[in-house]
Request: fold
Amino acid sequence: MLGNRTGWIIALVVLALECAGVYFALSVDAYAEPTPITSPQSLAAIQLPAIPAWLAKESGTADAGALYQSAITEYLGRTGEVETMIRDSDRASLSKLSAIDKVLAARSAHGNAIFADHLEQIIAYGETNALQAIVRLGEASYRLGFLQGRRPADRARALEYYEATFVLGRRLAEERLTWREYDAGVGLMSSSGAAMVAELNKQTDRSADAAALQAYLEAQQAQYKQLIPIFEALYTNNDEKIAIHAGDVFAFAGDSKEAMFRVEAILKLGRMRYNPGVPPMTGNQRQALRLARQLKDSADPAVRRAAELAYSLSIEQFRTIR
Reply:
């Protein structure tokens, strides 16, 4: 009887230890679930507001992407000189700058791709020189429009430069491989669009065009504000919010139909490998690594590029970008 009792006790202890081991293994591998910010609507591809018809025109055979890439190369090769021109508002020099001529020519060229064939220029941890370059050239074009507009005889020319900045912004927003690209595009459209509305309202025969553009700008800003909470959930560096939104990151990385948010979520996987949030969940780190490894084989080049960066991110790199 005693032997049987001892045997049962030993068996129960062993069973308890096994159950504890299984529970521990499951708890270690458990990862966060999505919050309500993840929904069929938020995972769907974004549709930008329709651009006014008079701005949506293309002519000639020039390729806009090639023109922008050439302008980027020129800017990066003479950054200091161009920045001096912009800072000093040197109208004569800026108007002769071939990089801005290319931005101007691209406004009516064909194609919308800027970075699609140069993913290394746009999908990265931290700022990218190429995006900064084309944005600064867009801002320089806007600045040149303002300088031209100060002289009544040059107002038609001013509209051309404003339009070049606006079209560049629209293309960045349409491509939106990352939030930074989209954000930069919206910013360029907002500043140049407002300037165009002001100029058009000075012309009695362009009041309808001004009204259409103003309506577009308002719709664009409303959409932008609606998207900010999603980006903040995916990008946050706040430890508590990381823990809350880890499940959203996994959902957007795996299932988002919007390239911008999917890329941002995948890049976040790399950071989550070293920072699962507070309170920490080891399972979040495991899931981040699993997803990054899986997505490295994606057929989508942008997804593949982001996943490769996330999977290969080192702790030393993480400390510099966080």
The longest helix spans residues 207-235.
